[in-house]
Each structure stands twice: as structure tokens, then as C-alpha cells.
Design a protein that fits this description.
- This protein has nine helices and two strands; from the N terminus they run E-H-H-H-H-H-H-H-H-E-H.
- The protein is mainly alpha-helical.
Length: 341
């Protein structure tokens, strides 16, 4: 007995074909959107590559681009089949392709599910890459004359301004590195010399942050130097006063940006899987309804559509038997080849 049979007349078949055609073209638009988001994600990763120490993975955006292209192509083909389904002559040429097409759709849904899972699971890898990359970016901030790091200062400054963040974890990360190049330090000045000599590693450390950490929304002019020295500023206490620099670290800000993007894309792909599954079920009903017409020459006659020719149990049992026979055939061929040698 067929699984989930439904009776169809001409009017129902026409409505089903029209509805499927609209859903398929909606899937095409969603595929274009996924493709565009994949390109955007790839560009953003390239743009922030220095912040990730050039170790970012492009697996997810590459898969998104592939999935978007496949979604557009697969859905456009399905839409064309639905458009021609009510014309017996045109539908005849598509009929032999329907079974391979539905199998292809099943495989494509598995690929989309894998891509959606990666969108959620790869966020931890992005977090670790950002943590290490930003740590090194702050360390190399001063190396404006070093080949390969000339634009690190500009990149990090623009990142802090754009994402309203400061440092890796917070602004105190700048206290632990020398972020002013020796080229701009007056070594003849006793204060500078004492500060350098007092450090074990010979670094010029200070409780200051770059200008890009300043919050322009603060009513007070930016205090970026001597942040922990209350006597250096009038009416100032760094322990109780809200500083007029960004308090959020760039790792948190960038991770929030990328994770929200990956979550949104993952949800969109899950929605696409639902659309594709709906398309597959509808196309199967439409194809079987056209095949089981009592009088193919009379378009007004009734027919029956179904998802599976047999019940779920029987279908899986048949599939298991076919796989067993295929495996047995391969083993026989392997044995004959061994005997021949």
C-alpha cells in the first residue's frame, strides 16, 4: 500500500504545480542570498585576516558559495519541471530524470545540513583564532617600518574605531606591550631611559592606550595617557569613574560580529532545507499523480499521488536487500579477481 496517498483531480494537480513552481523560485532566491552571504563572509574574513594572524579557515564561506550555486541550479531545474508538468509532451522528456533528481536533492540536503552544522560548530575555532591573532596584532602595532607589518597599526586602529573596542580582552592589554616604536622615543630623555631600563625586557611600557580606544560619545576629553594615575588628571579616579575609552575587548566584539553572522546563515540554511524537503515531497506527489492517471488522454480524470510506493518499513527492507545484494556482488567480483591472479 502506498505511503500517504492523496487523491488528485485536474484542479488540484494544477494548483500543486503552480504552488511548487513558486516555492522552487523562492528557493532560487534563497540560493542567491546564500551565495551572496558566502561571498560577503569570505571578504570579511580576508579583511580581518591580519587580526586572525592569517590563520582563518575559509571552509565555511567556500561551502556557502557552493551551496548557494547548487541551490539556485537545483531549484531552477525543479521549477522548470513543474512548469512543464501539465503538458504531457514536455513532461515526458523530464520523467526519466525525476528519480536521479530526487536522489540528488536528498544528497544536497545532507550537504546543506553539514554546512549548517559547520556554521554553528566552527565558531569556537574563530574565537581561538581571534584570540591569538589579536594578541599578535597588538604586539606588532608599533612595527610600522617592518615589511609585512606596515599596515598593522592602521588595521588595528580602524578595527577599534569600527567595533568600538579596545585591546584583546580589554584596554589593559595595551599596558603589557610597547606600542610606541623606538623611532619615536627620545632616548636622551632621562625619564624615557629610566622607564626602558627599569623593564626586564627593555620595553617602554606605560598605562596608556592608542587614540582609537577613545569613546567620542564621552562628554570629557579623552584620557588615553596615565589611565591609572589619579593625580595626573583633575577630578579623576580610575577605580570608580567610567573611563572615556571603550571597555569591551576586540576579541569579544569581533567574535560577536562573526558569530551572529554564522548563526544567521546557519538558520537560513536550515530554512532552505525545509524548503527543499517541501519541494521534493510536492514534486513526488505531482509526478506520481501524473503517472497514475486513469486515462492519460483525458486531463480531467482523477489520479492518486503518494510519497512512497510501499510503506516505510517495506521501503527500507527493500533498500536493505538491494544494498546486501550489491555488496554480495562486489564480494563475488573480488573473489573471482583473486582467483584469476
Amino acid at each position: 500500500m502506498p505511503f500517504m496517498p492523496v487523491k488528485f483531480n485536474l484542479q488540484k494537480r494544477v494548483k500543486l504545480a503552480q504552488g511548487l513552481w513558486m516555492i522552487y523560485w523562492l528557493s532560487v532566491i534563497v540560493g542567491i542570498l546564500i551565495f551572496s552571504l558566502g561571498l560577503f563572509f569570505k571578504v570579511e574574513l580576508r579583511k580581518r585576516s591580519e587580526m586572525m594572524d592569517n590563520n582563518e579557515s575559509h571552509l565555511v564561506p567556500n561551502l556557502l558559495i557552493l551551496v548557494g550555486l547548487l541551490a539556485g541550479g537545483v531549484s531552477a531545474f525543479g521549477g522548470k519541471v513543474c512548469h512543464d508538468s501539465l503538458d504531457p509532451v514536455k513532461f515526458a522528456k523530464w520523467k526519466p530524470m525525476l528519480k536521479p533528481y530526487l536522489l540528488l536533492c536528498c544528497g544536497f540536503n545532507v550537504l546543506m545540513l553539514f554546512t549548517a552544522l559547520l556554521c554553528f560548530l566552527m565558531q569556537f575555532a574563530v574565537y581561538l583564532t581571534l584570540a591569538e591573532g589579536l594578541k599578535n596584532s597588538i604586539k606588532f602595532y608599533k612595527d610600522t617600518d617592518t615589511p609585512g607589518r606596515c599596515f598593522m597599526k592602521r588595521t588595528l586602529d580602524m578595527t577599534q574605531i569600527e567595533f568600538r573596542c579596545c585591546g584583546n580582552n580589554n584596554f589593559r592589554d595595551w599596558f603589557e606591550v610597547q606600542w610606541i616604536s623606538n623611532r619615536y622615543l627620545d632616548m636622551s630623555n632621562d625619564l624615557v631611559k629610566d622607564r626602558v631600563l627599569s623593564n626586564v625586557e627593555g620595553k617602554y611600557l606605560m598605562d596608556s592606550v592608542p587614540f582609537s580606544c577613545c569613546n567620542p560619545g564621552s562628554p570629557r576629553p579623552c584620557i588615553q595617557h596615565h589611565l591609572t594615575n589619579n593625580t595626573a588628571h583633575y577630578d579623576y579616579d580610575h577605580r570608580i569613574e567610567e573611563l572615556n575609552i571603550w571597555s569591551r575587548g576586540c576579541r569579544e566584539a569581533l567574535f560577536a560580529y562573526f558569530s551572529s553572522m554564522m548563526n544567521s546563515i546557519g538558520v537560513l540554511i536550515l530554512f532552505t532545507i525545509m524548503l527543499e524537503s517541501l519541494d521534493m515531497a510536492g514534486l513526488k506527489y505531482l509526478a506520481t499523480a501524473l503517472e497514475t492517471m486513469e486515462d492519460p488522454e483525458n486531463p480531467e480524470c482523477e489520479s492518486e499521488g503518494f510519497l512512497l510506493e510501499k510503506g516505510v518499513k517495506e521501503t527500507f527492507a527493500d533498500l536493505f536487500v538491494k544494498m546486501k545484494m550489491l555488496r554480495g556482488g562486489n564480494e563475488v567480483e573480488g573473489g573471482e579477481a583473486a582467483e584469476a591472479t
